[in-house]
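Thread: Newbie trying to understand structure tokens

Hi all, I'm a second-year student working on a class project, and my supervisor (Dr. K.) asked me to get a predicted structure for one chain before our next meeting. I've only ever worked with sequences, so writing a 3D structure as a token string is new to me. If someone could post the tokens and maybe explain what I'm looking at, I'd be very grateful. Here's the chain:
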Amino acid sequence: MSLQVEKLEKNMAKLTIEVSADDLEKALQGAYMKQKNKISLPGFRKGKVPRQMIEKMYGAEIFYDDAANALIPKAYADAYDECELEIVSRPDIQVVQIEKGKPFIFTAKVATKATDDTLGEYKGLEVDKVSTRVTQKEVDAKIQEEAEKNARTVTVTDRGVQDGDEIILDFEGFVDGESFEGGKGENYPLTIGSGSFIPGFEDQLIGAEAEKELEVKVTFPEDYHAEDLKGKDAVFKCTVHEIKAKELPEIDDEFAAEVSEFDTLDEYKADVKAKIKEEKASEGRRKQEDQAVEQAVKNASYEIPDAMIDTQASQMADEFAQRIQSQGLTMEQYFQFTGMTAEKMMEVLRPQALKRIETRLVLEAIVKAENIEISDEKLDEELQKMADTYKMELDKIKEFMGENEKKQMKEDMAVQEAITFLVENATEK
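---
Reply by user tm_fold:
Sure, no problem. This is what the structure looks like when written as tokens:
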């Protein structure tokens, strides 16, 4: 195999790859062996037609496609290793020459990692100041939320329906005095305020007493899903059979002991406050990271090849397909349900792909500019966290990881440290 590399505009390159005539002949013979059992000619049993006879009858071209498909993967892989380019796209393959007795020549147009970049300003960027102040109102709201989770449901007999109640309801709707499809329900469970019914319906049930019929008058929205009901006035005859209300626990020491590891309400409140404070700090830090990275990317200048964006978008589409499949759906089913197509999805993903590429390039440039390196000790610390998560020995984790995986992990960790560097060298406003 011989290789020629031609640098093109916009970080593209063209590899011209030549495979010897002898290797082409072997591939043609392989193609013949693969196809011979499918070819029959008068006077010959199937599978026994000589190659020369087939080529005479149909032309040597009959085996060219299979031969090319057999040669290209290995030849391209060898060229990939030899060219020393950092290729970041799938190759665009074009056959230049395929002829019996001559070398097989093809080209592979590829995108290479951007090198003609301008990093721009990345120190002293402005980020929002993180506030970890926690108000008593926030603490009370969090505790109230926990109380709601621990509420019990009790049947109410001494009052009418109130907002938040769970009721059992019979209803039948009429438009112009006529009942309509889907307008009737029996023993229907409904939470008042849930917005499950037409706007205004649930509000009119407030005050209703059990086993007493009442009328609810509503107007169907103009965007209602049923064409024949859009904008129509309707009357529902309703009967509430049962009213259930949430009974919240008393928020005291006993409650604190039940929902936490603390014996007193004061201790529980202090813990809730500390956790909210921690959450705010983490959220604020993430916000600062996003702001700093966004500014660093904006200040940088990169010429990103379209092929690189397309490849990244394809990878993102594959990742999405895997997530969908884990939920028991195929992409075909997803497209059917959503009206999306593969082409539309790629359109949607391309801007996201570009942003992901630009972000990675900027952060990698900062890693290089600041000489950020990840030691073997730091890598071991991260691997130990993985081992603890999966309840495995560190040595076992290392056994499963090849050198390429370790190298990639170090690169990812260095990029994360670049983000930390941006925030630490930013100015809070």
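A couple of things are worth pointing out once you decode it. The mean pLDDT is 92. Residues 265-299 form the longest helix (35 residues). Feel free to ask follow-ups in this thread.
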